[in-house]
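cron nightly-structures :: item 1 of 1
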Amino acid sequence: MTNEVARAVDMVQTGGASDSADPADQADQADQADGPQVVIRRLREDDQDALLAFGAALPKDDWLYLDVELQLPATVARLVNAVEARNWRQVVALDGSRIVGYANVRQLPGWKQHVGDIVLVVGEGYRRHGVGTALAEAVIDAARELPVSKLILEIVEEQLAGRLIFKRLGFRLEGLLEDHAVDYLGNSRNLVLLSHHLAAVDR
């Protein structure tokens, strides 16, 4: 997917709720028949106001699980200013002109420069419609443009649905980091480390 090409998330409009016994399917594909019209594309410089509105609309409980502070204008300005950065790729999900999901992959520096670190968040009203899976697939595709061979995702232990989305896409459990994050309330959180190796043919 290039900056100029957007793609529709067909699965949020077609088909009924999944009959699969896979919890990952149930976590992100339920109620598809009534799902919103969503398009996935790259973040652009003129998305600053829409991205800030998206962050401001996230439930406060989500802040317990986010490493990127999308509710802060300074954070959003930094992300938008990095749309052309060589070591980052950023994608958004849109319903009309509203951003309803955001993901990025960033090439890590130094001796971890072969690793891409993923962040993903979906708006509350757009979960369980396949939007998270579509964003995850898009950001993995975007990571193939970077000189990385391994992708990682650090996710709060309680975020089972998010973990299952990436597990279905080939990520595996690499470790549990105890008390590795502190949320905005000052509570320690365990992080689950998931990883995925990109095949050489994919890069």
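cron nightly-structures :: done
Helices lie at 23-29, 48-57, 73-81, 131-143, 160-168.
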